[in-house]
């Protein structure tokens, strides 16, 4: 993705994701419903595991970025929470 692109911006109910930045630099913002943490992925020997029910947003920082994502589930649209207000309600239940 290009510099200043924002991707993700959703959570999964069951899917875990493992992120590795193969090229460039990506900030991954993780929110658990009450606390936000930001992780910098800027080398290919560093990865980040995002478990289910964590809201994640990726900020691409350089001109050329490649972020590889490995998931433990097949694609299922019903696994996504794409609205932050729905996510907060989901976390509270």
Mind explaining what this structure looks like?
By secondary structure, the protein is mainly beta. It is built from one helix and eight strands; from the N terminus they run ββββββββα. The chain has one helix at 84-92, and strands spanning 6-12, 17-23, 26-31, 36-41, 47-50, 55-60, 66-71, 80-81. The chain has a five-stranded antiparallel sheet with strand order 4-3-6-1-8. Strands 5-2-7 form a three-stranded antiparallel sheet, with no helix packed on it. A hairpin with a 4-residue loop joins β3 and β4 (36-41). It starts with 5 loop residues before the first strand and ends with a helix. The relative contact order is 0.35. The model has no long low-confidence stretch (mean pLDDT 97).
Percent of residues in helices: under 10%
What proportion strand?
A: over 45%
Lateral strand order in the biggest sheet: 4-3-6-1-8
Major sheet details: 5 strands, antiparallel
Give the overall form: globular
Q: What is the H-and-E element order?
A: EEEEEEEEH
Mean pLDDT figure: 97
In terms of per-residue confidence, which ranges show pLDDT below 50 for 5 or more consecutive residues?
A: none
Instruction: Count the beta strands.
Output: 8
Helical region count?
Answer: 1
Determine the structural class based on helices, strands and strand pairing: mainly beta
- Spatial extent as radius of gyration: 13 Å
What is the rounded distance between the termini? Answer: 35 Å
């Amino acid at each position: 993705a290009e510099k200043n692109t924002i991707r993700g911006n959703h959570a999964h109910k069951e899917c875990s994701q493992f992120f590795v930045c193969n090229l460039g630099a990506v900030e991954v913002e993780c929110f658990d419903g009450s606390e936000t943490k930001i992780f910098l992925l800027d080398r290919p020997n560093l990865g980040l595991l995002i478990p289910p029910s964590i809201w994640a947003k990726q900020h691409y920082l350089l001109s050329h970025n490649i972020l590889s994502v490995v998931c433990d589930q097949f694609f299922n649209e019903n696994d996504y929470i794409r609205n932050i207000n729905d996510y907060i309600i989901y976390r509270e239940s």
